[in-house]
Structures are given as C-alpha cells and as structure tokens.
Amino acid sequence: MRKNIVAGNWKMNTTLPEGVKLAEEVNEALKGVNANCDVIICTPFTHLASVNAVIDPAKLGLGAENCADHAKGAYTGEVSAAMVASTGAKYVILGHSERRQYYGETSETLREKVALALENGLTPIFCIGEVLEERENGTFNEVVKTQIEEGLFNLSADDFGKIILAYEPVWAIGTGKTATADQAEDMHAHIRATIAAKYGNEVADNTSILYGGSCKPSNAAELFAKPDVDGGLIGGAALDAESFMGIVKAF
Ligand code: PEP
User: Fold this and answer.
1) I need a surface site. Which of 24, 68, 103, 160 has the fewest CB within 10 A?
2) Is-catalytic flag, 190?
3) Ligand 1 mean position to 233 CA, how many Å?
4) Residue 188 catalytic?
C-alpha cells in the first residue's frame, strides 16, 4: 500500500550551520514521536553530506531539491544525481514549479532527470500543478494530466512505481492561499485516475500523492484526512522544526 509522507523543501534557505541545526532539531523531535508517516527533508546541495551525518535514517529521510539532466562532464555548476546519491541522500525533488518557471525546465529535461535519479537509486518527488490563470480558466485538470504524461509516462510500470508525486497548485505556493481540502482531493483523485488509465489500478493505488502549497499545522489534518491526499510537500513551514513537526503530527 502507498505510504503517507511529509517532506520538507527548504528551497534556498539556511546557511550550512543553520541547516545542520534545523536538521538536528527535527531529528531530535522525531525521537519522541511514533510518526504515522515517513518524514523527509530536502535541503540545498551544500548541506546534504553534513545533514546526512547528523540524522537517523530510520526516522528521517534526506533529499535534494534538484539534480542535473546529464550524468557527468562539462556542465559547470551542475550537480549530478550520482553526486546527490553519494552524499547519502535518497530522494530528489524534480520539476518544482520554481524550477519550471525560473529555470526553464521542460518535460524533456525532466524525463532525463527522472531517468538519472532512478539509475542512481534516488526516489524522485515529482511536482506538478497549474498556475492561477489555468485554475481560473478551468484547464487545470488537463494541464496537470499533460505534465504527468509528458514527464513520466515514458517509464515502465515498475519504474513509475518508484515515483512520489506532489501536486502543488502554483497559486498556493508561498502565498498563504491553500487549496481547499475538496479542491486538493478532486485533483488527487484525477491524478490517480490518470495513472490508473495508463498503468492500472494497482500502480495507481500504490502511488503516494502529496499536496503542497501553504500547508501548515493548522490546515494539514483536514487535507491529510482526504482519501487521495497521502501527505504534504512543505515549503515555508518546514523551516521551523516545531511547525514542521506540527504537520508530521497531523497524521
Ligand atoms: C513548495 O514550494 O514546495 C511549497 C509547498 O511551499 P509553501 O509550503 O511555502 O507554499
């Protein structure tokens, strides 16, 4: 059966000492808790090895926020999936809307990134979601379906089964505007039906689909209570151990 997951996306926040301290705080807080979900933190590349050294991997997973679309070579400034895996990280966020929007990531580059992540044993947390205009003009279901088809439907059923999806309506990211629990459930059910049509019900039922977009301790329980919402990808609220743990405890 699919897993419940709460994953933090730190984005471009925290210096290395600040990041290690935050990871230590989350790790410490988890010691006293029997979490009903897997807990993951995705940190800047520079923090991965140091954070990996201070967390208990049985309680807290570690991921990167991106990886390169090439395996190795003359790509100054890029960080490969193999490099990420060599730090001890097990996950990688791919296709975050900020990467699509500000760094021109396309479905084509994302297919490369997903393939390299999987080859290196990393679990992609693959982000999809519509912008405000698409929500308002009613094309949001089609937009998200196309993102999934173009980014992931080249995979075998076996490889697709290794993917975690994160539905993040762009209009809800960092805006304080959360999708209602019903809006999230409707989209998650649509995503699951899209997967079922391609790979069958078993693969669809086993895929974890996270919600992301201004999720916080005060709204997490209502979102996570929905049958097709399997947890959250958390931005701002992951930068404080207490609020992140408040979301973990919503399960
Ligand atoms: C995100 O960017 O993945 C995210 C969900 O951000 P926030 O929680 O800050 O809206």
Assistant:
1) 103
2) no
3) 7
4) no
